[in-house]
# Entry
Amino acid sequence: MPNPTPAPTPLEPFPRLGEALGLELWVKRDDLYPSSGGGNKARKMLRILEEAERAGSNALVTTGGIGSNHGRVTALEAARRGWSCWLILHGDADSLRRPMGNLLLMILSGARIEVVEPSAVGPAMEAAVAALRAQGRRPFEIPGGGHCLAGAQSYQAAGAELDRQCREMDFDPEVVLLASGTGTTQAGIVAGLADAGRAARVIGISIARRNPRGRAIVLEAYRELTDVQGRSEREASEARRIEFRDEWVGEGYGKASTAVHAAVRRAAAHGLVLDPTYTGKAVHALEEMRREGEIARGTRTLFWHTGGLLNLMAEDVIATGGDRR
Ligand SMILES: Cc1ncc(COP(=O)(O)O)c(C=O)c1O
# Structure
């Protein structure tokens, strides 16, 4: 099945929220990416599936947390094609009793789901691939989070997409900020903006990993991109632009503080829907960086919205808030 090339996601000003934050705020709406529920994982997946299709695959195997956006997108794209899908998930297996959000969609898609300890993911993936082969299927293994070259390339192309939109709409961001996990999205954006000659500071807000490892992984993904392009001579200066910030990780992946919940509520009250696992952490960081003066008042800021609505639908972000705002 040929993959249609989706239209660019919108680039939109958010003046009311911007005023509340003290910024000129625009949002790149990858939460509205038009396939399989949207988000950055959907954008990455379409590029990854081009590879799977070239390889003649008819089954997908991947891994992620039990509420993984990547797992949801993989499951739905496989179902759309009539392919088998085997998901090796880690996290609280009790969620299977009352599935919500992404997990609900993984189940509805018909994917086979196995919940294992994080340390058992590798062997379980290998076993799934072997079992599918034994059934006569041609499985394609996707790294967790879509963390691979094709995933990064999809965001390099998205950087070019943003550049075109910025020129059309006469917006020149000084800061681009996003939630960063495996870092492929960030690496691609840094490369895409560098290709376009844009000097914006790109800030990845870690949702799980700590430095120095977190930044090193983004850098590795970035180097893989530049190696493919054979432009390592530019690499040294651009690599300095990889800014991966771990101060807002809190208690770790999927664990949102009351401050993150409050940021989610505040943004929603200004018409921007965030989630507690990814984008809420990022905007909470943006609020703090602005408040503490690290980002100056009036800075032309692009928030790259990477999705996560289904994570919001699986978590109570109201219980922690006194006045619900
Ligand atoms: C909504 C959302 N935002 C951001 C990220 C981070 O993307 P990456 O893994 O490419 O850094 C993820 C990853 O799961 C995500 O689901």
Remarks:
- The chain has twelve helices and ten strands.
- The pocket of pyridoxal-5'-phosphate is lined by residues 39-41, 69-70, 145, 179-186, 278, 306-308 (CB under 6 Å).
- The chain has a mean pLDDT of 94.
